[in-house]
Predict the structure.
Amino acid sequence: MARALRIQFEGALYHITSCGNERREIFKDDADRVRLLDILELSLSNYQVLLYCYILMQNHYHLLVETPHGNISEFMRHFNITYTSYFNRRHNRVGHLYQGRFKSLLVDKESHLGILSRYIHLNPARTEHVVFRPAKHKEKYLKEYPWSSLPGYIDEAKKSQRIDYSLVLAEYGGDNSEGRMQYWNQICRDIMEGLEVKSKVVGQSVLGSDGFVQWVKDTYAHRVTSPREVPAVRGILRYQSRDKILKVISRYTDKIDEEILSEKGPVRQIAMELLFRYGGLKGVEIAEIMNVDYSTVSKERKRLRERLRKDVRLRRLVERIESQLPKVKI
């Protein structure tokens, strides 16, 4: 069975999610939500973890936390077990409350702290009864949603002592009226334009700049003793920067990035194939980059394979490009 990748170090930032077993609710009423937040505050204190934002939904929750002592597993074990024990006692039940272990996404604090905070705060606006409503309705719903850290980000009077607001708001002008207004304005733009981060996640485990992903790859991925048992590690080990791959293709084809990504033909097919094999990108992610349907990526990669069997010159071109992309055994 595949195991989730857990990278721990001092100062690591994580997007944490835990979902109810079989997607069942983890809160029966507001008393449960209050109790979970109390337990969260206790766990934060016990393990000296910083909380930047949270959202409580009906059958799951999201946290954005930093671990100055590199102890995310210990913190989450205490938090989830304590709440499960409370929930089972109160509701006269036994067994698992959550669906497996918690999910953790290692985040580049320098480049994605603000983005992840907004992505988490937008969750209530993505629910079935709200997602198709007008933008103004979503804004009102988010402002009034009671089980979120967002109110403290946009209204000083609603700040909570359990939340560290300053670092996120520093990106928007500071922990002051101007910063809070800019943060809310960006949330409103996100409602209108959409905010998507899943396609940028590498190996289902890391979100950040190319430099950050490369650092994680060089520092931690190779330390896992059985990478074949961990799909996330395979995704990280084969990761190469998209820009690096396009740069090599450009060098051998005399085409700029825009031409490589948009012009139909073998060069775009080569880019699709190498982004998949060396960039660690999924077909849907490549489709988004090239502004095509997901099925197009699959079809074009298949056509390239057929071309390579017949076209010696094309095959040699691909071989020369590949020779400039480091290979990793996984």
Observations:
- The CA atoms of residues 9 and 204 lie 18 Å apart.
- The chain has two domains: 12-198, 240-330.
- The two ends are 17 Å apart (CA to CA).
- The longest helix spans residues 72-90.
